[in-house]
Amino acid sequence: MSLATFIVILVSVAILALFFKISFKLGLHALSGFIGIFILNIFLSLVNLHIPYNLVDMLIAGIFGIPGLVILCLYYFVL
């Protein structure tokens, strides 16, 4: 096996590992966003309101946390 082949394989594995690392982190953020929206929807059901579950909203809530949930509330109930 030549040196160029070894370098190409090494770079390919590094790129693939980075892809899986980023995908895993985004998945965890989406899961935490889902839990946050789920808990918020429990409290919002008392006033007959609801935030829909979709990937973008879950990522916003997961990455930004409580301020992200506030932004989603303002977006869905003011606009």
Helix and strand topology:
Elements: H1 3-44, H2 55-64, H3 66-78
Number of beta-strand segments: 0
Radius of gyration: 19 Å
The residue fraction in helices comes out at: over 70%
Q: How do the SSEs run, as a string of H and E?
A: HHH
User: Could you say which structural class the secondary elements and strand pairing correspond to?
Assistant: mainly alpha
Q: What profile does the largest beta sheet have?
A: none
Describe the global form. rod-shaped
Total number of helices: 3
Round the mean pLDDT to the nearest integer and report it.
92
CA-CA gap between termini: 61 Å
Strand content: under 5%
- Which segments are poorly predicted (pLDDT under 50) over 5 or more consecutive residues? none
Description:
- With 79 residues, the protein is mainly α.
- Helix content is 82%, strand content 0%.
- It is built from three helices and no strands.
- The protein has helices at residues 3-44, 55-64, 66-78.
- α1 packs across α2 and α2 (55-64) crosses α3.
- The radius of gyration is 19 Å and the shape is rod-shaped.
- The model has no long low-confidence stretch (mean pLDDT 92).
Can you tag this structure with a few keywords?
82% helix; single chain; 79 residues; mainly alpha
